[in-house]
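Incident review: delayed structure delivery

Summary: a single-chain prediction request sat in the queue longer than the usual turnaround. Root cause was a stuck worker, restarted by the on-call engineer. No data loss occurred. The affected request and its eventual output are reproduced below so the record is complete for anyone auditing the incident later.

Affected input:
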Amino acid sequence: MPRVVPAEELDLIERMISEYPGGIGISALERVLAPHLSKALNRRTLQRRLERLLSDKRITTEGESIALVYKHAPGVAITAESIVAESSIGDEAQSYIPVSPEGGIIRNLVQQPLMQRKPIGHQRSFLEDYEPGATFYLSESLRFQFHEMGRTLVGERPAGTYAREILNRLLIDLSWASSRLEGNTYNRLDTLNLIKFGQAAEGKDI
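Output delivered after worker restart:
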């Protein structure tokens, strides 16, 4: 029974080759693949992957011997799914963050090595055209959702509540520190339970 080749690795290799229209040799291919894999493929394994892509007519070759380069087969499209699949290779730590197919494409573009990124300048108009209270980058429903998530209960609490909380903390610290000087064995948590709930700690002297 033939061994199953990971589809994600095949998609990744195909995509890397497609980024070099003039072709890429196997040594250079090993270097560009390394940042995208948790464990580098050895030369023989990579050759088997390339042979599989060749048999599937997803890539072609040009030249011979040490001048042999691999090219993406004309007319074969790189799908968004194959690009998103790359995120699961060597990046399992991020697999718990769900993203849309479009988000996966953006994430993979950002993770590319610097020399492979396309330089893009800043758009000054994006900031200059902004008008506070008039320009919105999110929909009204999404803004309302975020507003509700970020609400606190400060406005619904009686006046002076926050000040009393600070005062209570100072009272506990003062009581614990002064009692400690007298030789008691209470810690801060024991002191808190004694003052707030009237619960004495078992086996400890006040």
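Verification: Residues 83-90 have pLDDT under 50 and may be disordered.
Action items: add queue-age alerting; document worker restart procedure.
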